[in-house]
Amino acid sequence: MRPSLQKSRRHFRKALSRLPLGVSSNFRYWGEEGTIYIDHAKGARLWDLDDNEYIDYRMGYGPGILGYADPRIDAAAIDGMKTGGVFALSTEREYEVAARISKMVPAAELVRFSNSGTEAVMAALRLARAFTGKDSHIIVEGGYHGVYDSVLWYADIEDWNPLAGDPDVKPESEGVPRVLKKLAHFTPLNDANYLESLLRKHGSHIGAFLVEPIMGNCCSITASKEYLHDAKALCRKHDVIMIVDEVKTGFRVARGGVQELMGFKADLCTFAKAMGNGYPISAVAGREDIMRKIGDGVVHAGTYTCHSVALAAAEKTLEILDETPALQTIADYGTDLREGMGRILSARGIPHSFVGHPSMSGLFFSDTAPTNYRDWRDSDYSFYDSLAPELHDLGVLCEPDSREPWFICESHTQDDCLNPTLDAFEKAIDITLNRLDSPRKGFLQHENI
Ligand SMILES: Cc1ncc(COP(=O)(O)O)c(C=O)c1O
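Above: the input record for the complex with pyridoxal-5'-phosphate. Below: its predicted structure, written as tokens.
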């Protein structure tokens, strides 16, 4: 039986009278009938207005690394509240948190804080432009770097005809100045030759290469170590700053983020999400010579930067991630979940693969995991699209879009979360197969792409 969303629907109609789409972020709108309003959350679980309970694998798009309402972090935040908020002056704690980040991420020689991932990326791009004197940048196809006009462009892979050359580049939103299009260049992940020819052609205008080595908004498609090292060498050769956007991977996939996993150092990197276990804080960090441009021509500011509550939450979150085995526990839970799902899918002969780090897994309905966004078209994402609502009905909340990974937190324990998730997954798979009529219909849908 489908869970009732009666109260959420009633609230949606009310909210619509004061809030566009009835929500405060376009991505929270799931249609007139399906938009869910949350009553409260704890650990890895959410309860909506209708008292439906969900095991959550979205975790706020990644910030929940320890779990919702973690008592250790909330106690630190309450302590931070006593400091008083924001003062248009700094506090000692900023140094303490910056020092912790530098210890965990060797590339982070200097650190500046903001409130959101968007602001951190914006600062990184500005620094790169200022340092190189070049205004254009490169984005990896399928990458998402926030709601800042310079990065609100995408390579349209869904409507792409490979025989007609590269995918079109389009704005993600109306209102993004068209003039910015010429500053944004695109490259497929894991194709150093493509990157090289792009840099050979446009390198004299390009100041930054923006990359998420595990693509947190594109099924966790992962860069190879070799690609990253080649890309870094190419960036150096063409005087381009390599910005590693760790807004999703930072303090999640390893203590030192994706840079630790891949064994390399960015010129600049950006952090948010897991850094404060959901409290709003972010950072841009990197090479001292670039970061010192702040105060030497580059402006970086913000009324709310380092609010005492968010800063105290970040201090405690990072301490836990650095000094306890939390990240190993999370990776183990992710591995267990993958193995369990894999067994269920294999038993039914369903081609599948997992990609990315176990703490943020992409699930693909194809034998081979994609190596870039162009490959994603070959997976049976329509099967995923049919499966996700069934999972929701069974109390497992994953993103309805297959491009968003499954996020794991320290509260996704085996008995309380993983086992019930696997039970629901098995049921949802069978329902989806039955609904698709023929067991393999869904998998064949895209074979002509
Ligand atoms: C890789 C990456 N960069 C930047 C952002 C923007 O962060 P925020 O939504 O906090 O502005 C996101 C958000 O999901 C992200 O995933």
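Notes for the reader.
The CA atoms of residues 279 and 310 lie 5 Å apart.
The longest strand covers residues 206-211.
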